[in-house]
């Protein structure tokens, strides 16, 4: 699967959303997350992100390794909704994101 890492936090450019053929990129309050069971590894989202937040999980930089599990764990209890547009935004971010200090604060 591909994962979204810290540079997305508080930016949420959303260029990635237009590229995903299976609509598996879900919006949280402060960042977006890729559903690991719904992503088909097409890779279309990765080059369009202006903050270079998207990585194939095995290429995730060490400093952001926690975002691998975070992209999966944020869907705990939701299962595989089968599409971000139909499901709507996630009510909460992963705790890892909550701990990222907001820019300018
Ligand atoms: Fe975030 Fe980049 Fe998508 S900033 S919303 S991962 S285009
Ligand atoms: Fe979608 Fe990106 Fe996966 S475009 S299918 S989330 S690699």
Automatic annotation (TrEMBL):
<protein>
    <recommendedName>
        <fullName>Ferredoxin</fullName>
    </recommendedName>
</protein>
<dbReference type="InterPro" id="IPR017900">
    <property type="entry name" value="4Fe4S_Fe_S_CS"/>
</dbReference>
<dbReference type="InterPro" id="IPR050294">
    <property type="entry name" value="RnfB_subfamily"/>
</dbReference>
<dbReference type="InterPro" id="IPR017896">
    <property type="entry name" value="4Fe4S_Fe-S-bd"/>
</dbReference>
<keyword id="KW-0479">Metal-binding</keyword>
<feature type="domain" description="4Fe-4S ferredoxin-type">
    <location>
        <begin position="30"/>
        <end position="59"/>
    </location>
</feature>
<keyword id="KW-0408">Iron</keyword>
<keyword id="KW-0004">4Fe-4S</keyword>
<keyword id="KW-0003">3Fe-4S</keyword>
<keyword id="KW-0411">Iron-sulfur</keyword>
<keyword id="KW-0249">Electron transport</keyword>
<dbReference type="Pfam" id="PF00037">
    <property type="entry name" value="Fer4"/>
</dbReference>
<keyword id="KW-0677">Repeat</keyword>
<keyword id="KW-0813">Transport</keyword>
<dbReference type="InterPro" id="IPR000813">
    <property type="entry name" value="7Fe_ferredoxin"/>
</dbReference>
<comment type="function">
    <text>Ferredoxins are iron-sulfur proteins that transfer electrons in a wide variety of metabolic reactions.</text>
</comment>
<dbReference type="InterPro" id="IPR054830">
    <property type="entry name" value="FdxA_Actino"/>
</dbReference>
